[in-house]
Amino acid sequence: ETGVTQTPRHLVMGMTNKKSLKCEQHLGHNAMYWYKQSAKKPLELMFVYNFKEQTENNSVPSRFSPECPNSSHLFLHLHTLQPEDSALYLCASSPERGQGSTEAFFGQGTRLTVV
Amino acid sequence: AQSVSQHNHHVILSEAASLELGCNYSYGGTVNLFWYVQYPGQHLQLLLKYFSGDPLVKGIKGFEAEFIKSKFSFNLRKPSVQWSDTAEYFCAVNPISGGYNKLIFGAGTRLAVHP
User: Fold this and answer.
1) Is B38 helix (H, G, I), strand (E, B) or coil?
2) What is the pLDDT of residue B52?
3) Which of A14, A18, B53, B67 has its CA 20 to 30 A from that of B7?
4) Rounded CA separation A8/B44 (Å)
5) Which pLDDT belongs to residue B45?
6) What's phi and psi for B96, nearest 5 deg?
7) How far apart are CA B63 and CA B45, in angstroms?
């Protein structure tokens, strides 16, 4: 248990569906991240939020839409995905710099399959 | 753009062999450095971290890493591996001079240890 909880753990969706991934942390962290982990590819940073503000969008297609309503919750809204978007989506959180180490804590991930 | 390079994608060792995994990063400013491990079917876990002080850092399970600033490197070592070290290892960098948190990962190294 890392203190970062992701739901659902598994998701199968059609290309015309709309779904959302949820991430929650109660570690008091102010930075939250979405990563995509695909087979045979590096762990790809998608989005970063610091103090609820988006500070990084790593050229992610608009069919992925993040939302950070507060420092404890992060969502990834999905619509009209493609089969190549099938992957493990990981959420992480870390303390803000100035609080010591910026070590990130990861959730278990959501295994997404687009059919 | 900032990047992290891990030189070995797959490493196969026998138990008791010594391990060294290479990691180089491209960023000229101050960094926090990390090694994470992902055991089969489990979430990413922190192995060790460097953010200031002694460049030789010790982590869990007998792992250590040395930060060599002049070489932009943070190589991971273990003098004698065990079968239970079979996992994927990721080097990560947070370029903390950038104003906000941004954790960038290398492609990972899959380590297989044979009894």
Assistant:
1) strand
2) 87
3) B53
4) 18
5) 92
6) -75, -5
7) 13
Which tokens belong to B35? 């090694």
Least CB–CB distance from A103: residue in B49, B100, B104:
B49
CB contact under 8 A, A104 and B103: yes
Report pLDDT digits (tens) over B69-78: 999 999 999 9
DSSP-derived pairing of the beta strands B87-95 and B109-114: antiparallel
What's the token pair of residue B23? Answer: 């990691």
What is the rounded CA–CA span in Å between residue B89 and residue B41?
Answer: 14
Question: What are the DSSP E strand ranges found in chain A?
Answer: 4-7, 10-13, 18-25, 31-37, 44-50, 53-57, 64-70, 73-79, 87-94, 105-106, 110-114
- Cβ burial B66-89 (10 Å sphere, 16+ → b, else e): bbeeeebbbbbebeebeeebbbbb
Q: In a structure prediction context, what are the per-residue pLDDT tens digits for chain A, which is 115 residues long?
A: 679 999 999 999 999 999 999 999 999 998 999 999 998 777 899 999 988 899 888 899 999 999 999 989 999 999 999 999 999 999 999 887 666 667 899 999 999 999 9
Q: Does A27 touch chain B (CB under 8 A)?
A: no
* Those residues with Cβ within 8 angstroms of residue A18's Cβ, 6 or more apart along the chain or in another chain: A77, A78, A79
Tokens 């000229």 sit on residue? B28
Nearest to A56 among B45, B92, B102 (CB): B102
